[in-house]
Amino acid sequence: MAKCSPLIIFLLLLHFLCFSLQSQANEFSRQPPRPLILTTNKRSDSEPQQVHISLVGKEHMRVSWITADKHVASVVEYGTEAGKYSGKATGETTQYHYFLYRSGTIHHVKIGPLRPNTTYFYRCGGSGPEFSFKTPPSQLPIEFVVVGDLGQTEWTKSTLEHVDRKEYDVFLLPGDLSYADGQQPLWDSFGRLVEGSASRRPWMVTQGNHEVESFPILHLPEPFKAYNARWPMPFQESNSTSNLYYSFDLPSTHLIMLASYTDFDAHSDQYKWLRSDLASIDRLRTPWVIALLHAPWYNTNLAHQGEGESMRQAVEQLLYEARVDLVFAGHVHAYERFTRIYDNKADSCGPMYVTIGDGGNREGLALLFKEPPSPLSVYREPSFGHGRLRIVNETHAQWSWHRNNDSDSVVADDVWIQSLTSSQACFKNTSSPPHDEF
Questions:
Q1: Which CATH architecture has domain 138-426?
Q2: Does 304 qualify as catalytic in the annotation?
């Protein structure tokens, strides 16, 4: 085994010291989390592990997996009957180093065209277990599961079990996936833990602060190195130049995944891309627009106060003028739903903001909120859970938040939402309705 040079040892110590200092700086009262779950690979070197899928356009899916054997072909066989594969596609492989860690061979294969609302069976690399997934429908209704700050604890496992007990179409994750924080084997453990869910439904993700994995001073390794290698999203299909921000379309719905931890000011590539992306939406055909990001712009929890403020000041007006319906965020380890807001005031033409950073992370819950409550904060609770957004038709959707109660999942917050396109005032008037102060 190769010896570590003094420089590498120093850099590793500095790396973990930075994470420790960051946690101490953001210290607040937390409920103790459940233990970490570390999963091991029980398959052969040639068999796929950490299988997950993601959407690529309206008729294709990307299948991603890892093998220890670098000679396994990047091939996916698939079909609509178990054990019978009428389709076959070949993809590409990648690999990355992170100090002394070297990843397995990472495979990415784009398959399709696929029929909507159809179950497909598939096999990766020519061997190993058969998996299956269902494609999203071609028309409404459609249902999303939203989970932030997932991690890999016993709470994570509980959340995913609750999610999978009820059917849904697409899984949305607004950042903080594995909580590897530089310990790269935790990415592998996370991939194995979520495989049961992530191989069955498309997971569409964006990054959080725990995906950066770079020294604050040296900027080494390259930021988001593991995240970009393992979780490629369809950024090129939406004319983005970065895997950190992109958009995609589903029936009557346009979803925008934003990056809280790369440049977002008016001169940045992300800002210019977002402005162009929003301008391209035909709201007659796409009445619902939803954005996801990691650091919330509105937050009455004592944790992470103001950390999304600079992005809000730079970007919020774009979302407001485009009449974005909903904005989901993570980062704060609690649940909070706000009314429709623009510029720190209640505004019936602004987005409804939801913080849902309560998937099951190892850091525990953010228990303390500001008092007295803001009139803009409609519901807030420091518990682990998940959310479901069911878009029923072009004008109405139902949002519900499901609290983890050990073996049960309890609907704790439930609200019907009307699309902004159905509001004549919001699409014909340029002036805002009367405001209530935040």
A1: 4-Layer Sandwich (3.60)
A2: yes
Looking at the DSSP bridge assignments, the partners of residue 157 are none
Cis status, amide bond into 137, omega within 30 of 0: no
CA-based nearest residue to 227, from 109, 52, 46, 17: 52
Asked whether this chain's domains 48-135 and 138-426 adopt the same fold, the reply is no
Residue identified by tokens 């191989």 is: 199
CA atoms within 13 A on the CB side of 224: 17
What would the two tokens of residue 349 be?
Answer: 């033409």
Residue pair 124/107 in contact (Cβ under 8 Å)? The answer is: yes
Give the active site residue among 304, 331, 333, 402: 304
pLDDT tier, 34 (very low <50, low <70, confident <90, very high otherwise): confident
Q: Could you report the per-residue pLDDT of 221-279, keeping only the tens digit for each? A: 999 999 999 999 999 999 999 999 999 999 999 999 999 999 999 999 999 999 999 99
State in words which class domain 48-135 has. mainly beta
What was the pLDDT predicted at 33? 63
The total number of residues written for the chain in this structure = 438
The answer to whether 20 and 12 are in contact (CB under 8 A) is no
| Residue 172 and residue 328 in contact, taking contact as beta carbons nearer than 8 Å | yes
What residue spans define the domains of the chain?
48-135, 138-426
Which tens digit of pLDDT belongs to each residue from 272-305? Answer: 999 999 999 999 999 999 999 999 999 999 999 9
Supply the DSSP string of 194-248, one letter for each residue: HHHHHTTS-EEEE--GGGT-S-TTT--S-TTHHHHHH---STGGGT-S-TTSEEE
Q: Which two tokens stand for residue 326?
A: 């909903």
